[in-house]
Backbone:
């Protein structure tokens, strides 16, 4: 019975342990700005994973570019990120918003790609039609070669 008591006391002491959370920084990055910074960081990491050699050869420092774009420094980002991460529900909401914005951006880019491909196809079709009309209007025996893809 004494062992059970000691185990119980041990668990109570461990459970009562105080977790130290970071203080709110004086130059805390606003939530909306933090969402955009994290979105850019995730996009940059994705780009880095796709073509790392080019970025390494060209000495592209994505973090520095992001900091410069948003007018922050690495310390301000680290402190703000640590603060938001300590506020679990708020940080989860930030990350969900980042994900939603990336999904919207992907959808927009996919639409743009499809639209551009359709324009190119329509343009080629118009050139083919024009060539066909020119061939039809030429005297018999004269022919213009078709456009190559």
Residues:
């Amino acid at each position: 019975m004494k062992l059970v008591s000691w185990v119980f006391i041990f668990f109570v002491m461990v459970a009562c342990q105080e977790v130290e959370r970071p203080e709110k920084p004086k130059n805390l990055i606003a939530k909306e700005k933090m969402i955009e910074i994290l979105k850019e960081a995730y996009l940059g990491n994705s780009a880095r994973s796709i073509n790392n050699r080019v970025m390494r050869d060209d000495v592209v420092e994505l973090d520095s570019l992001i900091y410069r774009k948003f007018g922050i420094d690495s310390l301000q980002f680290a402190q703000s990120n640590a603060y938001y991460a300590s506020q679990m529900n708020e940080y989860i909401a930030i990350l969900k918003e980042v994900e939603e914005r990336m999904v919207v951006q992907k959808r927009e880019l996919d639409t743009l790609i499809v639209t551009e491909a359709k324009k190119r196809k329509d343009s080629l079709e118009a050139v083919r039609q024009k060539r066909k009309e020119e061939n039809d209007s030429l005297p018999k025996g004269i022919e213009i070669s078709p456009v190559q893809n």
